[in-house]
UniProtKB/TrEMBL annotation:
It catalyses: 4 Fe(2+) + O2 + 4 H(+) = 4 Fe(3+) + 2 H2O. Fe cation binds at E103, Q136. GO terms for cellular component: cytoplasm. The lineage of its organism: Eukaryota, Metazoa, Chordata, Craniata, Vertebrata. It holds the Pfam family Ferritin. Residues 173-188 have a biased composition (Polar residues). This is Ferritin. GO terms for biological process: intracellular iron ion homeostasis; iron ion transport. Keywords: Iron, Iron storage, Metal-binding, Oxidoreductase. The gene is LOC101704033.
Length: 188
């Protein structure tokens, strides 16, 4: 049987848990929305799989926080879940900085919860939040590294395109020396 305590969480902790759960559900929706934006083979289907996985992870973490509330008889209402409002994104490189910003905000919200739980001497909640913060920081660093890798890859591709061009050709593929005929440039 699951751990049940007759004492509800202090209001500050209950509100913090609700806020973390709602924000994780929001990020889960963002990840899923992005995953379906990048499913075409030309974009990066492997990236879409990663985003779908992260959506499931965030959703499960949100459910864990809600279980904390349920065990302590603190669920009065389901947290408000904001829907992802993401416009069309052309590449993962353009989406990742926004995702990192969301993850940083979630980290701040979780740190606030940990502080509230520490003040209220809620040791189980503090430990659970600390463990998730470690995972959260690893995940955020991974995303930041992905941004750097994508930038390096793009710089490499651009240098490669420039080195493949004849001296008189522009990067767009137009040959400026032969009266407008186009050169056949393939993407790396």
């Amino acid at each position: 049987m699951a751990y049940q305590s007759p004492n509800p969480f202090p209001e500050e902790c209950a509100n913090g848990i609700n806020r973390v759960a709602a924000y994780q559900m929001y990020i889960s929706d963002v990840y899923l929305t992005l995953a379906y934006s990048f499913t075409e083979p030309k974009v990066m289907p492997a990236f879409a799989v990663f985003l779908e996985h992260m959506s499931a992870v965030k959703w499960e973490q949100a459910k864990e926080f809600l279980r904390f509330l349920r065990r302590r008889n603190c669920i009065n209402s389901v947290p408000f879940i904001q829907r992802a409002n993401i416009g069309p994104l052309e590449t993962p490189e353009k989406a990742l900085p926004d995702v990192v910003n969301l993850e940083e905000e979630l980290t701040r919200i979780m740190e606030d919860l940990k502080t509230s739980a520490s003040r209220a001497r809620e040791t189980r909640l503090v430990k659970f939040t600390k463990d998730l913060l470690v995972k959260q920081n690893k995940h955020r660093r991974f995303l930041e590294q992905e941004i750097l890798d994508y930038r390096r890859l793009e710089e490499y591709r651009q240098q490669r395109r420039l080195s493949e061009n004849p001296a008189g050709a522009s990067v767009s593929g137009e040959d400026t020396t032969s009266g407008g005929s186009t050169a056949n440039l393939s993407a790396v």
